[in-house]
Design a protein that fits this description.
Length: 299
């Protein structure tokens, strides 16, 4: 009888130990969950000051979050400073660049030697390039810092694509490039103004790199979750190892150094897409042209 009592006591003790261990584990998990929740919403602070491992974990998490917050604040301050600097540069250079363009135009209207006309044309082209660079830098910095907010809203895509295509029709005709508009029906959630900017960047590249006699096609493709604006060209194509790099800021492919531009259009296009929960991708093969697709979530 005594043996049964001992066995029973041992079993009860073992059961109590298991229950206590599970209760302690559940409390620890709840505390960790509370800590992570507080860390995510920014309200975390050390609440236990003892020699336990949980207290040590709290202390390390607190130090990590403090360092992360300081680092994030420093990054924001640096971005704000860069944005302010670019805005100042834009403001201070606006008048000089406009004067350069004006004087270059006046110079080109004067009787000049062939070499003089070439110099006047070069001055005008470089002044225009500088103006484009400054404008692109200002747009990019304001998008990155959130100064310019996008306002995606449900709407039809066709008006945006039609306006963008109309802007580049004269430039395409000047190069003897056929600018074709395909299927246009489709709807998505997007910011019309900035989406038009992105489509114009894609069309600008397509017309720029497509040789005379080629074709540029813009159309809308509808999928289950996204609608895509596609710009296809019959240009030289892009090597696979270059395709991820072309969306970087100021990146120019080795074969594109002679083309006009500053290498920021595709970077700006990607920023515009990502700010609207969309994305941009490219499909291309050397000698077979390229297809750039701008995806936006559907209704």
């Amino acid at each position: 009888m005594t043996g049964y009592l001992v066995i029973g006591a041992v079993l009860l003790l073992a059961l109590a130990v298991v229950v206590y261990d599970r209760w302690r584990t559940a409390c620890t998990m709840k505390r960790l969950d509370d800590m992570l929740t507080a860390a995510m919403n920014g309200s975390f602070s050390e609440g236990t000051f003892d020699e336990s491992r949980l207290s040590a974990l709290e202390s390390r998490l607190w130090r990590y979050l403090t360092a992360s917050a300081l680092s994030a604040r420093n990054v924001r301050e640096q971005k704000d400073q860069i944005s302010a600097l670019i805005s100042d540069i834009s403001h201070q250079t606006k008048t000089p660049v406009a004067n350069l363009q004006l004087y270059a135009q006046l110079l080109s209207e004067q009787p000049l030697t062939p070499q003089g006309r070439d110099c006047a044309a070069a001055i005008s082209a470089q002044a225009e390039k500088l103006q484009m660079l400054i404008e692109a830098l200002v747009k990019t910095s304001r998008l990155e810092t959130g100064i310019l907010a996008l306002h995606p809203q449900p709407g039809e895509i066709s008006p945006v694509v039609e306006r963008a295509a109309a802007q580049y029709a004269p430039k395409a005709a000047e190069k003897d490039i056929a600018l074709a508009v395909g299927q246009m029906e489709g709807s998505a959630v997007f910011d019309p103004k900035w989406t038009e900017e992105a489509v114009c960047n894609l069309l600008d590249n397509a017309v720029k790199y497509t040789p005379s006699g080629g074709t540029v096609t813009v159309e809308v493709k509808n999928y289950e979750l996204f609608s895509a604006i596609q710009v296809a060209d019959t240009g030289p194509g892009i090597y696979e190892e270059e395709q991820a790099k072309i969306f970087g800021r100021f990146y120019r492919a080795p074969g594109a150094w002679q083309a006009e531009g500053v290498g920021i259009g595709l970077y700006l296009t990607r920023q515009i897409a990502e700010k609207q929960e969309g994305y941009v991708k490219v499909e291309s093969r050397p000698g077979k042209g390229s297809v750039f697709s701008l995806f936006f979530p559907r209704l």
